[in-house]
Amino acid sequence: MSTEAIYEARGIVRRFGAVQALDGADFDVRPGEVSALIGDNGAGKSTLVRILAGADAPDGGTISFQGRELTLTSPTDARDLGVETVFQDLALANHLDPIQNMYLGRELMRPGLLGRLGFMQRAEMRRRGAEAFDSLGATVRDYEGAVSGMSGGQRQAIAVARAATWADKVIFLDEPTAALGVVQTKGVLDLIRRIRDKGLGVVYISHSMPEVLEVSDRVHVMRQGRRVAVYDAKSSSVEELVGAMTGALETKEAS
Amino acid sequence: MSNATHTKDDVAAPAPEAQAAAPRTSVGEHLRRRVQAQALQIVLVWLVICAIFSALAPSAFLDVANFRNIAVSVAILAVLGVGTTFIIVTGGIDLSMGSILVFSGVVSSLTMERLGDGQGWGVALVGILVALGCGLGWGLVNGFFVAKAKVPPMIVTLGTFGAALGLAQVFTGGIDRRAVPDELVNTVGFGQVLGIPVLVLVAAVVVLAGIVLLRRTKFGLHTSAVGSNPEACRRVGIKVDRQLIRVYAFAGLLAGLAGILNLTFFRSTTIAGHSLTNLDVIAGVVIGGTSLFGGVGTVFGTVIGLLIPATLRNGFVILGVAPYWQQVVVGAFLIGAVYFDQVRRASATRGRPSTSLFARIFTHHRKDS
Asked: Complex ipTM, two decimals?
């Protein structure tokens, strides 16, 4: 496993009025690794992810990608780097089908005049889209139906698979399993493992400690706007994680 | 695919028989299928209406000339309806198209009467371009205020509804203009090709283009996507504001086209004649199955939705029924159409198909009944 961070944040500061959401937070993502991001409500997890996804700008600190320092001004900047994010709202267009959602904003156009007139390679998108879902094991039962009619697990799988298809470096998942049942959750965790096995860095926020220990390689614990500890998931325990989250335990900043 | 079963739906649901995946599979399809089914349903409704009138007045109603009349009476509304369908699919509304039609006709007519003797194809071409330009201009105004200034579409288009009509009256002193080149009247206004009025042919071309545009192109897909979830569009880099402005501009352009068609057909700017056109068109769009909540709709449905009131009006006149009844019946259709839309949306979000009679008739693939 590579130990070289591909995406790194140092000393990120973000204030919302009087609220200090992030107070010098560090973070790093390594390729081919699942990093869990945990912390109590208000610890700054979502704010940090929003900043790394380009959806919010920090008041201070540095972000570097593949060793190069940069400033993100929009989610498009992050996407251009190969960084995709699935927020809790999933951001699916409900009336469109899974393939249309996958290719939304990235439609394959026909060559030549027809393409300039706005005609798309529909069959090609159907074929490649179905292949992409299949290769991730995201069981989409119905490629033709509107996603609004699908279950929470299906919708989550579609959103995650879409992000995984376009991300080639890092993927952020904000509580992907929060609203799911047991088996649906297992499906999404399997999906996360397969994305990691593709060599991507996966970062995911969760409140479920057993789940975090099961699927992640490293666990980053946030408290009061800072990363207070990084644990190796294999050698950690629920007690240790909860202790670090609440501040009951002495914390260590692991490598 | 070995882990295929892991994301199975219904895990949280207690019912074990939910493992029969097939009905769930079709749920997503339902929304789309039912939109298409609703278009089919209203075709059926329209055919029933035609059948009733045909039975009651076989010689007068069931006549090629009579259907030609119905088609002509719908043609201009259909041109407006295509643009309005796109706007409603974005989740917006347009109250201004009748006034834009009048404004475009007025400015076009005023321009043409000042050009030479006001006759000839050159003048006609200028008149057409002026009308299209006027419509496009008003559409851009609508789109700008909706997309950039974030004023609700109903207010923006209510404003331009008044403003465009008011300006048309300022330009003319409220008196209708009649300047149209004869060439245009004889071809577009009253001409026929193979027995089909040119007016109807123009409308048919616009409708076909609208169907292809909405269903087959990126423009149409993004129109649905913007109406479905604008935030999702922003996240994937679609310029939502620009898409909205384009849609309103497109609808304005078609209103301008309708303006020149109206002028050539009536040989008049019909300033006072379009105050309720917007409601007729919106009723047609909604009866045709386009959701007022945005995201889904069909241009084909709109055309049928416009044909139903026109056919009723025509049939009632032939039967000697007071034509006022047509308004009553159309009103009932409108409420019924929106009711079905609500039921469909509710069943889609519940993730369970409803079991209306229409749904049973038109969705053969359902296995849960």
From this structure: 0.84
